[in-house]
Amino acid sequence: MRYGVVLLLLAALPAQAREIVTLQTRPGVSVSFFVTGMQGVQPKAVALMLIGGGGNIHLRQEGGKIKFGAQNFLPRARREFIAAGIQPVILDNPTDQQMGDGMSDAFRESAAHTTDLRAVIADVKKRLPGLPVFLVTTSRSTISGAYQARALGGELAGVVLTSSLFRSRQGPVLAIFDFRSIAVPVLFVHHRDDACSATPYFDAERIGRAFPLISVSGGKPPESRPCDPLSAHGYFGKEAETVAAIAAWMLGKPYPKDIR
């Protein structure tokens, strides 16, 4: 299957340059993503990043500069991923999920979402041959992480679920997901003091008895609401240590299970 590709370049692109890539993934639908520059660091793995909430980062080029919403934990910590040798690839919503509240939970579980991610993964593997590709998610995007890691199987090297959305007002979400159905390695990351009612630490602690779990404590005083990124929910003030541990797990190195 062929996908239409549009590259929006900042300049003549050397290796490891920053770029926006837009792929046609389904009839009449495209997905854009930002491949960050690596600042001279040789990448050892790729992190496909999906932010929480509705998923929109409003990726665009203005005045010769790439712009996007970067407050969420994952894009905010992209420099820490780069320093650890992980190539960030930050995804925006597909064009049919840009309006309103963005990606619904039902879409995050859907075959259409699988189709979009499969196209992105295939393109990234061509751009960065030989590198393992991980799906790295946070908060509401952990629904995508769980369901799509199960659907994509060996196309991914693994999946990272940070601040997992275990519950909602309607009832359990990932708290009742069968993570044993995912064929690739799974890492959970959770802050002990996460005060968001949808992402309680006790669920992560319970699941961590069977799966790798990195538990985080401390950080800066919150500057946002409990379910927003500038709080324990987004590892505010503990980004560097948290990312270093995630990167070590991705690269098969020893990693701390307890960050304080």
What is shown here, in short?
With 260 residues, the protein is of the alpha/beta class. 24% of the residues lie in helices and 25% in strands. The chain is built from seven helices and 14 strands.
The proportion of residues forming helix, as a percent range, comes to 10-25%
Widest beta sheet: strand line-up: 1-2-3-7-4-8-9-12-13-14
What are the segments in which pLDDT stays under 50 over at least 5 consecutive residues? 1-15
Q: How many β-strands, per DSSP? A: 14
Major sheet details:
10 strands, mixed
Structural class call reads: alpha/beta
Tell me the fraction of residues in β-strands, as a range. Answer: 25-35%
Mean pLDDT: 93
SSE ordering: EEEEEEHHEHHEHEEEEHEHE
In one word, what is the shape? globular
What would you report as the Rg, rounded to the nearest angstrom?
17 Å
N- to C-terminal separation? 48 Å
Number of helices: 7
General description of the model:
By secondary structure, the protein is of the alpha/beta class. The relative contact order is 0.13. Helix 7 links the parallel strand 13 (213-216) and strand 14. The longest helix has 17 residues, at 111-127. The chain has a 10-stranded mixed beta sheet with strand order 1-2-3-7-4-8-9-12-13-14, with helices on both faces. The protein has helices spanning 73-76, 78-83, 105-108, 111-127, 141-152, 201-207, 239-250; strands at residues 5-9, 19-26, 29-35, 45-50, 60-62, 65-67, 86-91, 133-138, 158-162, 167-168, 171-172, 186-191, 213-216, 258-259.
